[in-house]
Amino acid sequence: MTQTPKSAHPLKVAVIGAGFGGLGMAITLKRAGFTDFTVFEKAGDIGGVWRENTYPGAACDVPSPLYSYSFAPNRTWPRRYSEQPDILAYLRRTAEAEGVLDHVRLNTEVSGAEFDEVTRKWRLHTPNGVVEADVLVPATGQLSRPALPDLPGLDTFRGEAFHSAEWNHDVDLTGKRVAVIGTGASAIQFVPRIQPKVAKLTVFQRSAPYVIPKPDRAYTRWHHRVYRLLPQVQQAGRLGTWSIGELLTSAFTSVQPLGKLVELLFRYNLRRHVSDRRLRERLEPGYRIGCKRVLFSNDWYPTLAQSNVEVVTDRITGVTPDGVRTETGLHQADVLIYGTGFKATEFLAPMRVCGVGGRELSEEWAGGAHAYLGISVPGFPNMFLIYGPNTNLGGNSIIYMMEHQCRYVLQLLREITAGRASCLDIRRDVAERFDTEVQQRLQASVWSGCRSWYREDDGRISTNWPGLVWEYHRRTAKADLTAYREVSPKKTVKAA
Length: 496
What we know:
The protein contains 13 helices and 20 strands. By secondary structure, the protein is an alpha/beta fold. The chain is globular, with a radius of gyration of 24 Å.
């Protein structure tokens, strides 16, 4: 049985975002006996990226037994790599079973938040007015804001145009000429699904991705029965996948020669499915493996080899009413789909967050987003991020990282409710020392060698964790209160 925290008054916690991170924080609070918390969600349903991304073939590239909460295993996943509807259904079932849905306020976007130095509370601006909270936990994630390419003429296109994260299911692609800009993680999933129905599919590729085989399979009733009767079997599979993820991360960070093994998988995959030498040359990446996100697919290369598909590598000069123009000519299209990813480095945007002295978070992060352990930002007391800067992974499950962040935040909240602290602000010297270490290690990783969504315009890597998941587990296992300073209430000046 959980023990209700003791405090002079119930600690009021505001969580922003109802995806895996926000709901994970809510469940962690509920299980620990906290009752006065609210999850603010701008949309009309929970789910985060798994609610928003409904494009054909949307799926996770981490096996489902690992891409799930450790405390809520799903014995009936339909596939090893489950698709969007099943992941969203899992998240909904788990939130309902854990009893946190009543704490979620849907259709309630937080446009801004500021720290009140007199009351030491956070004031959140919502469509229904200002809400106060003792603790603010933004859990908006890194992949929530679609990015459109910076091309002249985007608004002149006469046909239907949409981003993959805002898929327009009312548009019938049958027999249409479809242009796809981008060859990232979303494109390699939806392109094979739409190719059989379109008349012509033109794929515009700026840089070729490394695509390796996806060891996917459907789970049978036998699998489900074994997982129910012997849950240790699924747990062993989860551990095995986690270990492979750690090995893959090592190939990108500390043991980079291992990347050659991954590259062999890529070359096998490409040569097996693409016999045309000229097309293979266009699909050869021009950077070290791992520098951009490594992708998993069994049907990407076979799709590009189809007769109604053209891969264009010429530089795009603009969009016209009739299609996409490159340096060598116009490619006509009826429908334009942007598979151009997300604004991953614009953390918490467009929300305006102000800390001590009215300092805006955008000002604090002018040189690049940073946070101690990806959780605490100096000058923003009692604000703790979930999936914040430098907590993304190159080869493992972000759900694992989020769980450890939630447990770390819970430790700090318990210190507050126990009376050993009241308003915690990470010391600037601690945060700067941590950030220096992280950035130095990241500069030695493969991620520093090319332009990608991992990096800021100036080259700073503000998304990824530089080590193994196990290291993050160790460093967040016990919260060190000496890393924080206590913020005293600011005295008001009485009028004469």
